[in-house]
Design brief:
6-stranded mixed β-sheet, alpha/beta
């Protein structure tokens, strides 16, 4: 995070870039832009972030390395109807394939399968054999607001005064550290 902040000349440049990234992570925009935004979102939160499906043609839409051998395997469904109440059989199948891909490509590592989706229930004919989670529209908006406030506060602090400890405390305050991200933004996917 500190390295990324230091690539910007002024606080205004920093906030402008954060706002561009946050606007890309919105429902009903092209999936290409959304997935690129999710990749950048991971990076500005300090995680190694990539788009396996884009770079290799297989794997999840997004993959964040949270720490050590812990990953978030993210499937973006931002183009589905915001009022949809269920995760479809096809979508569940895609996430199951992503889970299998991850196990093959990252042996010995752990993945938390996550949908970004308006629904948090599987349709009656859809199944997932791995506990999986969803970031709903409401939770995505909350995450984006906390990221915006986090960076607004950091931009008001002189670069000379910014320390890793200060950034860590601010991440915790805005619920953007790995523990709080897991607690506050993900909901378990349930069966209809």
């Amino acid at each position: 995070i500190l390295e990324w902040i230091n690539t910007h000349n002024t606080p205004t440049d920093l906030i402008l870039q954060v706002n561009i990234i946050l606007s890309d992570v919105s429902f009903n925009i092209p999936s290409e832009d959304f997935e690129a935004g999710v990749e950048k979102l991971g990076k500005i939160l300090g995680f190694a972030s990539q788009r396996p499906e884009k770079s290799s043609g297989t794997g999840s839409d997004n993959l964040w390395n949270i720490f050590g051998n812990q990953y978030w395997l993210i499937s973006c469904k931002n183009e589905v109807d915001k009022d949809r109440e269920f995760i479809s059989k096809k979508e569940a199948g895609q996430l199951s394939n992503d889970i299998g891909w991850f196990a093959q490509e990252y042996p010995g590592c752990n993945a938390k399968p996550i949908f970004i989706h308006p629904a948090k229930q599987l349709k009656e004919n859809a199944f997932l054999d791995t506990p999986s989670y969803v970031i709903t529209l409401e939770k995505l908006d909350m995450l984006k607001k906390n990221i915006e406030n986090f960076y607004k506060e950091l931009s008001s602090i002189s670069k000379k005064e910014l320390t890793l400890n200060m950034i860590t405390r601010k991440l915790q305050y805005y619920h953007l550290d790995p523990f709080n991200l897991n607690q506050d933004y993900f909901e378990p996917i349930s069966k209809a």
